[in-house]
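During the reporting period the student researcher (J.K.) took over the structure-prediction task from the postdoctoral fellow and processed the backlog of single-chain submissions. One of the processed entries is reproduced below for the supervisory committee.
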Amino acid sequence: MGHKLQKHNRPTTISVYTCDWCSKVIRYASIHPLSCDICKRYACDEHQKGWRDTITTCDYCSIWICHECQNIGKPYIEAMEKLDLQIEHLREEWHSKARQAAEAAKESKDE
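J.K. obtained the following structure tokens:
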């Protein structure tokens, strides 16, 4: 994969990241450059354009998915999105029935 340690004349070792698509050395300002959360490959700025940065099953985090993993995952992502809609419908139905039961219990208690 696109990560190796390089020794310099100084007694320090630095991490050097390279793009797994073009082998270009990746310059970065943060802790480490962007990698695909599925295949773990690193990408330069050019090759990370258009990466999907979230999927519907993860509302609390960003998941970066490279083009190749997106293509492989299309049928899975579509199925997960349909399931998310079903889950939301079931949650709404459950909450509605629970509220109705609470109302009924309150009315019978008031009688």
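The committee noted the following: Strands lie at 3-7, 13-17.
J.K. will present the remaining backlog at the next meeting.
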